[in-house]
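tool_call: predict_structure(chain=1)
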Amino acid sequence: MPGFSQWANDSRFKALALLVLVLGVLALGSYSYFTLKQAKYIFGGPTNISVSGKGEIYAKPDIATFTFSVQAEEKDATAAQQKGAEAINKVMAFLKEKGVEDKDIKTSNYSLQPKYEYTQGVCTQWSCPPGKQNLIGYTLDQSVEVKVRKTETVGDIFTGITDNGGMNVYGPSFTIDEDEKLKAEAREKAIADAKAKAEVLANQLGVRLVRMTSYWENENGGYPVPMYDKAMSYAGDAMSERAMVAPSIPSGENKIVSTVTLNYEVR
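tool_result:
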């Protein structure tokens, strides 16, 4: 029966062709789905831009901080402490005369160390005995940190400290006491700078700023930065001739710096 056999073959061919077509459609659909899913991860949200701003404020320092020390050497520890106390009390009395308050004077280091002298044993033709350390006294060293709120008097204070037995005067470091207001002003300028940059960038890119999405501030940027790097060491006895004239120590200006970063969503 050739007619029936040909019909059966045609039916199987059509069924096979239909199956291939269905599988092709499914494969194309799966490919499109995964392609779109990958595209979703490539771009998963709104476009953002990031801009940074900087603000600077200049102000005259109102605090000068420096250190000095007193030293004493005696054969007895108690005597060394007594001598050191007399020396520091003399300098303290001078500082109070100059208007420095107790809260602005603090000890940063206090040490009492034994002092030894090495003695070599007397050698003979047969042997050379080992030497030994002999205690010959004690050395006291006290370092004090001072804040002066009348910065124009620093030079006179340096001279007075050395004249009253202090030594190793080191400094000063000029800072601003109440600087939070200045930091806030610098931050305000930095934010305004960043906003202006964002407007310019958005215009150049042909987009519109929608909203700010995040804010970051450099905490290290808000501290006073000296406009110069000067320090002096005033050694006391070794410079007694210079101590007769008060040195001129200009305080200059400090720079308060704030840097911020703003992130914006754009369309």
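agent: The chain has four helices and nine strands. Proceeding to next step.
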